[in-house]
Amino acid sequence: MKGDIGVIGLAVMGQNLILNMNDHGYKVVAHNRTAEKVDEFLQGPAKGTNIVGAYSLQELVDKLESPRKIMLMVRAGDVVDSFIDKLVPLLDKGDIIIDGGNTNFPDTNRRVATLKEKGIHFIGSGVSGGEEGARFGPSIMPGGSPEAWPFVKPIFQAISAKTENNEPCCDWVGNDGAGHFVKMVHNGIEYGDMQLITEAYQFMKDGLGMTHDEMQSVFIEWNKTELNSYLVEITSDILGYKDTDGEPLVEKILDTAGQKGTGKWTGINALDMGIPLTLITESVFARCLSSLKDQRVEAEELFGKKESIVEGDKQVWIEALRQALLASKIISYAQGFMLMREASNENGWDLNYGNVALMWRGGCIIRSAFLSNIRDAYDIDPELSFLGSDSYFKGILENSMSAWRKVAAKSMEVGIPMPSMTSALTFLDGYTTARLPANLLQAQRDYFGAHTYERVDKPKGEFFHTNWTGKGGDVSSTTYNS
């Protein structure tokens, strides 16, 4: 009996996905560039299963039923291209290659087009949930060649996480790089969520002077509210974890955050598409700032920086902080969906935003209770341009506004950096302001560069230039994009 699917790459994610597929009755052929890794897997975690090994790409191909389905769980970039180049001569028309890594979506666009010319289908699929998700049910976001989806769908939907209604957290996203784009935005929201939680933690620790046990209790309680989510849950676990000396382990971890690029890609794409992804980009910059550890230590001493204690009823502040975190988290998702909407329009993907919310409902790192409310919002209005305009989320934002402003103002007053939480509030203030000062900005541009402007008393699309000094001339430069 031949295998149902082959998987290349036996790092932790690859191994766990294979074991997950085996649990659901699929025969998997496992391959790794290093033969010893195949032996270790077969004699270790895969021992006693129906998983079989392949020690060459030819053997892998020979052991699969047609159309062959081969999933790459390898490092994104040149490694993926290298495996594709080696596989193509061994495959037949109609066979399917799947990239399950964190690939930048333009690479997926290119691979879909290149392989289509050779008669081979390509799927670029985001996989979220970490090693535990891969083993017991991840969120899976496939896109690429639509002809390939019916052959992959049963496997992917079987191994994916399920909602409380047993709906699979996996569905077809769209053509070309749509799946990897949605995964990129997922990771950008993940950056934002994590940064927001760390800002709340610092406000409690440095501003309110709370102990780690007290903070753990707060996060446990918050997880019983609308903030119920995987990241809030694990934060409570982390704050309660003690080192061998009985002290909180988290305080012994160096405060320099790493990143693998997906948050940065999200910010770059937002800039390219003109979408104000302020919260997520601030979260990326916060990681960049954290890496300047030596400079920060010197600057603290140079400026004599000291945070002030936040005065007042601690429980009142904790509730205000909860509301500020919830409101900011809504803005993080809202901005992410704005970016997906623009990308869908530009690329003709026809994304189903309710389905995206469903795919994120379980298994993935940003899974949270209110994703069900996001799905409901887009079911009511599939063309919803701003998530905060939905009645449910509008109500939360309005009810949280006073507490949100109170926390943002206090953080600036006492010197606690909260870049993502404050930028989220500033975004909403800007988004809900009918007339912004960009009229003055356009006047400045026209003054020094003759870049022209539109007038409120003339039809949109008609451009004007003013000779502001009487010496600049009447010839305009090119018009601008708004």
TrEMBL record:
Pathway: Carbohydrate degradation; pentose phosphate pathway; D-ribulose 5-phosphate from D-glucose 6-phosphate (oxidative stage): step 3/3. Keywords: Gluconate utilization, NADP, Oxidoreductase, Pentose shunt. This is 6-phosphogluconate dehydrogenase, decarboxylating. It catalyses: 6-phospho-D-gluconate + NADP(+) = D-ribulose 5-phosphate + CO2 + NADPH. Homodimer. Catalyzes the oxidative decarboxylation of 6-phosphogluconate to ribulose 5-phosphate and CO(2), with concomitant reduction of NADP to NADPH. Its EC number is 1.1.1.44. Residues 179-469 form the 6-phosphogluconate dehydrogenase C-terminal domain. NCBIfam families: gnd (TIGR00873), PRK09287.1 (NF006765). Substrate binds at N102, S128, G129, G130, H186, N187, Y191, K260, R287, R445, H451. It comes from Aliivibrio fischeri SR5. One of its GO terms (biological process) is D-gluconate metabolic process. SUPFAM superfamilies: 6-phosphogluconate dehydrogenase C-terminal domain-like, NAD(P)-binding Rossmann-fold domains. NADP(+) binds at G9, L10, A11, V12, M13, G14, N32, R33, T34, V74, R75, A76, N102. The active site is at K183, E190. Belongs to the 6-phosphogluconate dehydrogenase family. InterPro entries: 6-PGluconate_DH-like_C_sf, 6PGD_dom2, 6PGDH_C, 6PGDH_Gnd/GntZ, 6PGDH_NADP-bd, 6PGdom_BS, NAD(P)-bd_dom_sf, Pgluconate_DH. GO terms for molecular function: NADP binding; phosphogluconate dehydrogenase (decarboxylating) activity. SMART domains: 6PGD. It comes from the Bacteria.
